[in-house]
Amino acid sequence: MTDTTTNNAAGTRLIIPALRGLYGSLHDGAETLLRVVAGLALVTHGAGKIADPFGAAEMVEGLGFYPGAFWSLLLSATEFFGGILLALGLLTRPVAAATTFVLLVTVWFHWITLGQGYSGAEKSILWAAVLFFFLIRGGNRHSVDAKIGRQF
Hints:
This protein is 70% helix and 3% strand.
């Protein structure tokens, strides 16, 4: 026997079963919006770095990443170009893996290196969680990955 008030995806009963159609129709769109916003936020954040890709060399060496010029260039490219790829949904999982790593380093930087604790690392923790979601989920049907029929 099927209970029509059950949300099949989560296996829970909806308080207002009439909203099932709304939730179902907005599911992919909400996920796509989150991916695009996260990608564009990375592009915006990385734009200053890509203009001076070696500008963070001293900072990354201060975190123990040597040679600083190499890691600074990689950081710049990961944020800027990774953001573009994430927004498009192209190579979603590898990009999300790289950007999640970058965000976890910023958590360490703010929490431990700068001694700011949770309040200093909060934004990086939130962004790392969003990017980790796409590392696990990949691109949805509104991604370039889906359009070409391939993803990691």
